[in-house]
Amino acid sequence: MNAPTLTMDVRRFGETTAVVDIRGEVTAACEPVLMSAYEAAGGTATSRLVLNFGGLEYMNSGGIGMLVTLLVRANRQRQQLAAYGLSEHYREIFELTRLDEAITIYDSEESALHGVVR
Amino acid sequence: MTETAGPDKVATADQIGLSAREAAARPPDTAPPRDAASWARKVDRLEVDHRSGVRGTNVAGRRLTGPVQGFGKMWQKTYRMDAGPQITPEQAIATWREHFPEFWPKGNRFAGALTGINPGDVALLDLAIGGGVKLSTGVFVLYADAESFTLMTPQGHMFAGWITFSAERADDTTMVQAQVLMRANDPLYEIAMTLGGHRKEDKFWAATLTALGHRLGLPDPKVEARSTCVDSKRQWRHSRNIWHNSMVRSVLQTISAPLVGLSRLARGMNSRTNG
User: Fold this and answer.
1) Other CB atoms within 10 A of residue B33 CB
2) Tell me: the pLDDT tens digits for B128-174?
3) Domains: count for chain A
4) I want to staple A53 with a disulfide (CB 3.0 to 4.6 A). Which of A5, A85, A112, B48 is the partner?
5) Contact across the interface for A61 and B164, Cβ inside 8 Å
6) How far does A14 lie from chain B, in Å, by closest CA?
7) How far is Cα B162 from Cα B1, in angstroms, rounded to an integer?
8) pLDDT band for position B204 (cuts 50, 70, 90)
9) What is the CATH number of the domain that holds A18?
10) Looking at the predicted structure, is the pLDDT value of residue B19 above 50?
11) What is the per-residue pLDDT for B18?
């Protein structure tokens, strides 16, 4: 199996909000990386998790499936998921798969943070 | 290189200023990403052409449904088969895409495009559900590349979700896999899945993979199945999906078919008499 080419960095905004910067290729093979980032970002106090897709270079259908399992985990912890930085192409994929009905998409980090907080 | 995020990767908001944050949200590239040709174009509602050999109902005008829109518990089911060292992942997927309907178990029909499985295609299905009734529904080709393809279901299908067929090199062999990520679409389907539907589906995909294995030249294909309940909660807000239930509609369509046929015949005779 090829090694996943994905990095995720976590930035915290206070006690309740975290941003995950996603860079590289999102495929099913990257599940350990995503879940590890989720663990780092999703402490019990975290109620808002923002995914930054500005560095997304490639995503296949396995990657979308992985986001669904992330969504389930977040819902279980009563955490809200938001996203920003999606190109038009990836925004259309979110709409096509109707993932945008569960993960709110914003145009920028500021609006994602503000929108989620609001 | 694999890089795992962990506590050492965590930075505070103060450590990263606004400009860096905005820089992280890279503006969209003008060049299309390399997965662009693999994804279907966005559709709001499905459009279908007539396909011979299937009833072709319960698909046109329907919306696609992912696991987010389903009702029942969420399951991830994985069916894997060792295709041997001689077959490459690309060969396995090319064969699967080209001959997909031929691998379906007897009594079930998959009427796709003549060119095989391609992003954006809509295939019509007639599935045997017993009692001489065929469940008419369809699937949408969400994604297809050289090593995988994914089908997504419309409203009314037994489940809301997608099935990804993939192949990969593992050690010195090629592993072929079908993976379903799904929720039963409505309460009626959830009951049906609990009362044997899951077992029937397991048999269906095991038979499909076995047929693929024979086509790939395997003398005795072995399929491993694994099911994981990803979310045990039911989404009651989606219970109204039952309005689109293709099983109920297919039964009604089967029962009413003779009456519809007689009505058409009568209309035809009237028009000939009057004309």
Assistant:
1) 18
2) 887 778 899 999 999 999 999 999 999 999 999 999 999 999 999 99
3) 1
4) A85
5) yes
6) 8
7) 29
8) very high
9) 3.30.750.24
10) no
11) 44
- Are B11 and A10 inside 8 Å of each other by CB? yes
Look at A52 and A5; give whichever has higher pLDDT. Answer: A52
Find out whether B96 and B165 touch, Cβ atoms under 8 Å. yes
Contacts of B251 (CB under 8 A, 6+ apart): B133
In a domain, residue A1? The reply is no
Report whether B155 contacts B185 (CB < 8 A): yes
The rounded distance, in Å, linking the Cα atoms of B35 and A79 is 30
The amino acid that residue B91 corresponds to is Q
Q: Where in the sequence is the domain holding A71, given as residue range(s)?
A: 6-117
The secondary structure of chain A, three-state, reads CCCCCEEEEEEEECCCEEEEEEEEEECHHHHHHHHHHHHHHCCCCCCEEEEEEEEEEEECHHHHHHHHHHHHHHHHCCCEEEEECCCHHHHHHHHHCCHHHCCEEECCHHHHHHHHHC
Residue A5 pLDDT = 86
Please report residues of B whose CB lies closer than 8 A to that of A41: 10
* A85 domain residue, yes or no: yes
- Please report, for residues A46, A84, A112, B169, the alpha-carbon distance to residue A42 in angstroms, rounded to integers and kept in the order given: 5, 18, 17, 33
Cβ-nearest to B29 among A7, A87, A92 = A87
Amino acid at A32: P
The residues pairing with B138 across neighbouring beta strands, listed in sequence order, are: B124
For B128, B158, B186, B216, the CA distances from B245, given in Å and listed in that order, are: 15, 8, 8, 36
Mean pLDDT, rounded, for B47-58:
87
Chain B residues with CB-CB distance to A52 below 8 A: 24-25
Q: How far apart are CA A9 and CA B5, in angstroms?
A: 6
- Answer yes or no: is A71 within a domain: yes
* pLDDT beyond 80 at A66: yes
Instruction: Name all domains of chain B by residue range, CATH numbers in brackets.
Output: 63-231 (3.30.530.20)
**Is the separation of the CB atoms in A87 and B33 below 8 Å?**
yes
Q: Which pLDDT value is given to residue B1?
A: 35
What is the spatial distance between Cα B1 and Cα A6, in angstroms, rounded to a whole number? Answer: 8
The tokens for B184 are 């039963």
How many A-B residue pairs are in contact by the CB < 8 A criterion?
A: 147
pTM to 2 decimal places: 0.85
Determine, for residues B230 and A69 on separate chains, whether the beta-carbon distance falls below 8 Å.
yes
